[in-house]
Design brief:
- The protein is 89% helix and 0% strand.
Length: 65
């Protein structure tokens, strides 16, 4: 059992090494585009969460009366 676990761990570490060898640093333009997309995603998720909060705290109690 221990040998199997070490073999599995060894395989996992080898796959991580392969991934790190293929990875590269993004250039300035790619980084900028990814940053903008992430900020847009965070903003959209935050806006949706804020709308749900407003509905739950303001509109829903007003309707229940």
């Amino acid at each position: 059992m221990c040998a199997e676990r070490r073999g599995g761990l060894r395989g996992l570490i080898d796959s991580w090494r392969r991934i790190l060898k293929l990875a590269r640093k993004p250039d300035k333009e790619e980084f900028s585009v990814l940053l903008k997309l992430n900020l847009l995603g965070f903003t959209l998720v935050g806006a949706i969460a804020y709308l749900i909060h407003i509905i739950a705290t303001v509109i829903a109690p007003a309707i229940a009366r």
